[in-house]
Design goal:
By secondary structure, the protein is mainly α. The chain has helices spanning 3-38, 51-89, 93-116, 126-144, 160-176, 178-183, 185-215, 222-225. Helix content is 73%, strand content 0%. It comes from Synechococcus elongatus (strain ATCC 33912 / PCC 7942 / FACHB-805). This is DUF4079 domain-containing protein.
């Protein structure tokens, strides 16, 4: 495997080793938090008081990790294309590369800033929270719309890309509205509904991500693999079935 191939593995490796274990922790703590809230007021719950705060903190890390791993997955096809093709073979050349690189770095800075905000009440830091959430979401979507990023538009309902974009936006929204979720019951109900959808998307990401790994050739295999006819499922020199 070449360096480009190891680079390509960063996105799925971090998702498997870091993101999904944190997801398990977040889901477990979410269930315990809900059970504690529903327990009778006159009975002492065995669930510790700190479980809600632990759930919020783990959720902050999960959201930040999801955005970072998404930016790695989106950035790889863009920047590796420049490495392979050079400035002359890359659409837009070096100026476009610099623009995309700045957008990529800016998106990382925006999610880091959103993560670091610690408002104590729903009224605190509303504008910065909204600003950093919008900048992060816009950056991820704009980078994902680049032509180098494979989207599987012909099978959009089972697209790893579209599932990922929807998941990122849901997670950013949850992080940006964390003070409201902690304080207001209606926001809490909305949070539960949206994050049930996010859990389903996580499941879809696991399946579609594994499928896509089977379809991505190593860098030295690409010249041969991309000569194949993917509609008729044949390759040059392949004997008739």
């Amino acid at each position: 495997m070449k360096l480009l191939d190891w680079w390509a593995l960063l996105h799925p490796a971090i998702a498997v080793v870091v993101i999904y274990p944190i997801l398990g922790v977040v889901l477990r703590q979410a269930w315990l938090t809900r059970q504690r809230r529903l327990s009778p007021a006159d009975q002492k719950s065995k669930i510790p008081v700190s479980v809600g705060q632990d759930h919020s903190q783990a959720g902050r890390w999960l959201t930040t990790g999801v955005v970072v791993v998404s930016l790695l997955g989106i950035g790889y096809p863009i920047f590796s294309k420049f490495v392979e093709a050079g400035p002359t073979g890359f659409d837009g050349g070096t100026p476009r590369l610099i623009t995309l690189l700045l957008a990529w770095i800016g998106s990382l800075a925006a999610i880091a800033s959103l993560f670091l905000l610690r408002p104590k009440t729903p009224r605190e830091l509303r504008l910065p929270r909204a600003l950093f959430a919008i900048l992060t979401g816009f950056g991820v979507v704009a980078l994902g719309q680049q032509s180098e990023v494979f989207k599987r538009d012909y099978e959009a309902l089972v697209s790893h890309y579209y599932y990922g974009i929807a998941l990122v936006l849901l997670m950013i929204f949850a992080l940006a509205t964390l003070p409201e979720i902690q304080r207001f019951p209606r926001w809490r109900i909305l949070h539960i509904v949206l994050n049930i959808a996010a859990a389903v998307l996580f499941l879809g990401q696991g399946v579609t991500g594994a499928r896509d790994l089977l379809e991505i050739p190593l860098s030295w295999q690409k010249p041969t693999i991309y000569q194949c006819d993917f509609q008729n499922l044949t390759c040059p020199g392949q004997p008739p079935s």
